[in-house]
Amino acid sequence: MADMQKRPFRWPPDKAAVRTRAIRLEWVTIGALLSSALALFLVSGASQAVRSAFIEDLISIAPAVAFLVAVRIERKPPSRRFPFGTFRAVSIAYLVGAVATLLLGVFLFVENVIALFAAERPVIGNVVVFGTAISEAWLMLAAILYSTIPAVILGRLKLPLARAIHDKVLVADASMQKADWMTGVAALLGVGGILIGWWWVDSGAAIVIAVAILHDGFTHVGRSIRDLADERPTTIEGHLPDPIVGKVRKAVLALEFVDTADVRFREDGRLVTGVIHITAPAGAGLPDDFARIVRDTAEQVDWRVHDPDVVLIASVPERPAGKLQTTVQAPRSRRRSATTRSSS
């Protein structure tokens, strides 16, 4: 027996406020990335590291856009077409952000390895600004700092919000912000290397950063795929088993009409749902609304638990051994008698 009625999810007021702040922060992120990408494009010149930082800023917009699209889609209530709701839009957005991080690492690694082995020796010239000739290096350094400092701040602001609403998209986006400032550091080293004649520093520093970004990308892609494949719920960081499953089982077992409980949960975006199998003590009566009671008990454990199905497993009493033996042996006895009569 299962409770099949699916209900729309309602955000707790405090979590809804966090979600609103996250949405605003992502809009700020998009604006900051577009402006910094424009600044880097205008001063990129011959520096491979600065060009890489420009491309990296453009790719970094993907997780923020995916988050904003996902939070809009997940608001839709269950329908005939999507009877379980659209909460997994957040999981899909996590995959998009993870793939963007991975592609960024691949791009930076391949582009800078080619530049390093090609032994390209970039030259920084002068530009005239308001009638005064200045080195392009100063404009590059200013643009790099302009793109790096906001990335550090935005990344640190997103992680607490991600933990508060269990949003792995924000975690992936924070990793992308880390990639932003790491790429900025590589660009700073690259410009400095060009100025002192160490041309290889320009690409070498970017390769080191690309390896770190590749590691983050592979990690997040693997986690996002496992989430979509209905892996057990995991923590927001570290990908350890989420204690929420054990807490729900303990709460359900505390109900007087429940003998055993088996909780099988998965993640639907930020939420946790699945099936709770229960058995009742022998001879005990069940409330008519036992499914609702179990479901409400589970949802009170944590705000992320939403509308799990409740299934009652009927206990089949074992038959006495004596009766079982009589039932099995009787046919054998009749077969032996029939065989004897046939022989005679």
Structure description:
With 344 residues, the protein is mainly alpha-helical. It folds into two domains: 216 residues, Up-down Bundle (Alpha-lytic protease prodomain-like), CATH 1.20.1510.10; 69 residues, Alpha-Beta Plaits (2-Layer Sandwich), CATH 3.30.70.1350. The protein has ten helices and five strands, in the order ααααββααααββαβα. The strands form two sheets. A three-stranded mixed sheet has the order 3-4-5. α9 links the parallel β4 and β5. The chain is elongated. The N terminus and C terminus are likely disordered.
Indicate the mean pLDDT: 80
What's the alpha carbon Rg, rounded to whole Å?
Answer: 30 Å
Number of helices, where a helix is a run of at least 4 consecutive DSSP H or I residues? 10
Proportion of residues in helical segments: 55-70%
Q: What is the ordering of alpha helices and beta strands?
A: HHHHEEHHHHEEHEH
Structurally, the number of domains stands at 2
How much of the sequence lies in strands comes to 5-15%
Q: Judging by the overall fold, what is the CATH architecture of the largest domain?
A: Up-down Bundle
| CATH topology tier name of the largest domain | Alpha-lytic protease prodomain-like
Low-confidence stretches: 1-5, 318-344
- Relevant CATH superfamily of the largest domain: Cation efflux protein transmembrane domain
Care to count the β-strands? 5
Question: Strand pairing plus helix content: what structural class?
Answer: mainly alpha
- In angstroms, what separates the terminal alpha carbons? 57 Å
